[in-house]
Amino acid sequence: MDFKFKKYWRKTGLSPKWGNKLIEIINQKKPNHFLEIGVFCGVTSRNICEFLNVIHNGNFTYTGIDLFGEESSDNNEKKPKYITHQKFSNPLKHIYYNLLFKENLNSLNSVKKFLKKFDNQISLYKGNSNNVLKNLNIENIDFAFIDGGHSYQTTFNDLKVVHQSMKGKKATIVCDDYEDASYITDVKKAIDDYVKSENLSLRTIEGKFAIIEI
Ligand SMILES: C[S@@+](CC[C@H](N)C(=O)[O-])C[C@H]1O[C@@H](n2cnc3c(N)ncnc32)[C@H](O)[C@@H]1O
User: Fold this and answer.
1) Domains in the chain, ordered, with CATH?
2) Is 151 in the pocket of ligand 1 (CB under 6 A)?
3) How many angstroms separate the alpha carbon of residue 164 from the centre of ligand 1?
4) pLDDT tens readout for residues 22-72
């Protein structure tokens, strides 16, 4: 497979190493209907759309949910530091995005523009996944990447709603940040509790991706 995860000169939650690992899993499963909870600046979304476009010749959908700047009502939410301020280690990016174009990369408009090429395939929702998911028809989703709120309650709820909608079908869930981020411990607890309650099997990759195959 010669597809390589690109950063597109934006900010990304996944390093190229982990982006490529995710693409590798997607390549094994070849899903048609993808859900990402936690879109951030859309870099992983764009890579996923580019890849699904190649393997399915345009016949795929991508659904993304993010707060896109909305405050989470969950006080237990621990935001990774790079999200709180649009800071760049590259000073050119600071000049380009913050001073020249004043573009917030984690906004619905910015991500819509960035994914414009896939207008016909994508649906983006702004809001808290705890509210958005219950009003969304996700019956056809056959691959979910859960990387939104990292509190116990949000992780548990995201996983539960997604898994319940996938029951009885061939589908895959990948959760990010299972136990690798030292400042986030709730994700692992929530996943372990849910997996135990449903008697599911879980495999992990280097303590970062937690994978549930249905
Ligand atoms: C770690 S980043 C996602 C990174 C992205 N998946 C990537 O690979 O670049 C987490 C994102 O989840 C969003 N988020 C946090 N809590 C959320 C919630 N309760 N509902 C929806 N989105 C949420 C944040 O706004 C942030 O953009």
Assistant:
1) 16-213 (3.40.50.150)
2) no
3) 21
4) 999 999 999 999 999 999 999 999 999 999 999 999 999 999 999 998 666
- 40 Cα: distance to centroid of ligand 1 (angstroms): 5
- For residues 208 and 17, the answer to whether their CB atoms sit within 8 Å is no
For ligand 1, is residue 14 a contact (CB within 6 Å)?
yes
| Nearest ligand 1 atom, CA 36 | 6
Tell me if 72 CB under 6 Å of ligand 1: yes
CA distance 117 to 122: 10
Would you say 36 and 64 are in contact if contact means Cβ atoms under 8 Å apart? Answer: yes
Residues 190/159, Cβ–Cβ less than 8 Å: yes
The atom number, within ligand 1, closest to the CA of 154 reads 19
The beta-strand segments (E) located in the chain are 33-37, 61-66, 122-126, 143-146, 172-175, 202-205, 209-213
**The token pair that represents 65 in the structure block:** 């949910």
149 lines ligand 1 (CB under 6 A): yes
pLDDT in tens, 127-184: 999 999 999 999 999 999 999 999 999 999 999 999 999 999 999 999 999 986 666 7
